[in-house]
User: Fold these one by one.
Assistant:
Number 1:
Amino acid sequence: MRSIPGRPPRGAPAKTAARRGRQIFLVSPAASAYAWQPRRQAGVPMMVRTSNERFALAVLTVLVLDQASKLLVLNNLGYAHERVIWDGFFKFVHWGNTGAAWSLFRDNNGLLTIISLVVSAALMMGRKKFAPPTPAGDYTMGMVLGGIVGNTVDRLAHGHVVDFLYFYLRRRSGDELGFPAFNVADSAICVGVFLLLLYSVSAGNDGEAARKTVTGENERQASG
């Protein structure tokens, strides 16, 4: 039976899949419009984004936002200068960090660059072992890698990471009590790692609940 590209053939089941790259037909037009998108290069409908495409999109988005924001700082704020946005709470700064997050391990830029490159390669090759096999997992791992790459670019280009977001409180004495300055890359890494930890905890709880359910069912069958 001849089929029209983008539409299911008459009498086709609700979902039919063909192997080796042939398209999947969905009976519902709304579902088809959502799940399929024509790819101009190939000329055939494909999934909107594959796992690798989602991962790459997240990496590039974080990297572009991070480097663009740092470029604005480099062009508009001298090194070690500050610009108060909300007195006693927030200001833009232009500080260099030769250490890791929160200025730990200062003056180890070379070593941290090597570590960052190794971690980046490990995440690219084994990311599916650390994140859930879902679109959210792809984007989350992309956020983490994008942040690592963004800071690594700084280390290679400037010899330090450019930090420019600084939140603080002013004490009665006039001194500042501040959170260590950070950037877009740092934010992406922290948010991504936090989401991965949530997934890990959730997966552990689900596994424990499933184990208890199976154990209870086995005990009922044994007693019956």
Number 2:
Amino acid sequence: MYSFQDVYSSNALDYVVGQNNIQRTSENGNPASGVSYWNPINNGENATLTFKFAFTQPTTSIYLNTYIGAYNFGGSYYGSDSLWASTDGANWVNLASPPTPSYPGYPYGAGTNYDSYLPPFLIGSHEIWIQARLNTSSWNIMAQFCRQDTSWATNQIFALSGTTVESAPEPSTYALFGTGAIGMLMVMRRKKTA
């Protein structure tokens, strides 16, 4: 299983293979005790963060738990976001697209805590790619990925685990085992006749 508590955790970038127009932000300048997240660098441009996870055998299930959210402060201050998955990094499937919240109203944000097994059609490969897509207007924190307040939260903001097909022994392993068994029988037979 792979997980991290906040975007500044020492292992948060371990499986990141792509970053486009995206940055990590700490709202109070102290990631160890405060709110932090990934958000776009420039408004009006798509921002993406891509993870790639490889497995030694084909997957039989993959569980993902993470958070993605958008905000609307009225006028031109709003954001949009979505969460995607792929088995090859080229063909993407939408996992979540929370709508931009309406304004006025409270709360000003709408987030999605994706906490589920991935759909069956994303299973059976040796890899899984996860991608967050964000876009903002007028204020680049209006869309956020992996928002976490470490002043009180102790949970992991991103967690991915997978199970795989158990590998069957190679035919040569069976041959070696058979040869050993025959040898043992011959030794036992010689001891009986002696």
Number 3:
Amino acid sequence: MPGMNAGVDLSQAIGDIEDFEADLDIFRGRLQQVVDEAVRETAEDFRDEVQNQLKQSDIDSDTGELMNSWRVRPKGLAQYEVRSTADHAVFLELGTQPHTITGNNWLKFIPDDPSGYPERNFTEEGGEVKGDFAEDGLVVSPLDPLSDADPETYFAKSVQHPGNEAYGYFQDAVDKKSWKSSLNGRIRQKVSKLIEEFEASG
């Protein structure tokens, strides 16, 4: 009975597996990239919508500080944060109750009727403004850089702020559309394109 060769040459199969694993690693890396891109682009869209809500509310038309303060910051792979660098962003979003503001020598305001407020002269010592603050905290200073243009600008030791309206511009941006659906659709589109590219590459 002739001998039988029971051996199996697996070198080709092993080579194919190694090639597949290498392609799979490349695909995983690209998949992470496109998902990260989708999340970042959605975060940028949300930031733009927050700015659009601010523009519609007209609450930032004087300085543009709040409008220009919104940033998209990476927090990790496919993790992004949309936030403002302006301290007053949350106060305009949620509103505030009437409150007292206690300031430094440069806290100033323009009263509706300045005739009832006393004038007090200031001196400058070592680059700091010194002066005799009244108990009510209302003073006017010739050292105020705005005094020539607006002589009714007053310094204050403290002022009673009437509070801010809650504009809710951030929540309005959240409610504008389903951001989760928008993200999912963007991911599906990018992943489908990635699969087509890999299939075309053979």
Number 4:
Amino acid sequence: MSNEIVLPELTIDGHGDQGERIFSRRGFLGNVAHVCATGAATVCFLNLMSAEARAAGNQDQWWSCRKCGVLFYNGFPQKGRCAAGGAHVSEESHTAQGNNYLISYDVPESSNAQGGWRNCHKCQAMFFDGYPNKGACPAGGGHGAAGFVFVLAHDVPEKGLSQKEWRYCGKCHALFNNGTQNKGRCAAGGVHTPENFNFVLRYRGNIDSI
């Protein structure tokens, strides 16, 4: 018996001003309901990602950790491992604060958009996977890539609901918020060290392009 899942064609509800395809919540949910009804339960994870985010090639539920400062994926019950965690399990997990960021994936790179960003399946942080050295993971060793290949806009003006001063840490290779006085806690020791581009992230409430 084949394990291949054949998805029905998505309903396209029109095009935007720039020619992008627009998917309605109703149309998307209808397609997913059809897939679920056929027994393909592995694709039924709407609790982890909104319908708009899936249809548009974006993933939400990315949040800033108020303890270590990194961007981490908050869509799973297990919140990863924080470099600033204490003795208790709850203190070892990331704690969300601020905005629900919306990150683009599997789109082309450009002069102002860098690919190679991945989710670490061990600590749940966003890290740069473009080097042989995978940085320092608070769960031990280097980061382990999983899921989508994300593309982050950088060195562009803030527009709408977006935030700049997200930076690559040259020590642990995670993406962290450099816009506050507190530079968080780095898994490689001390605080994060900003290098290279100034990334600008969109957050929930604005699903247009930066």
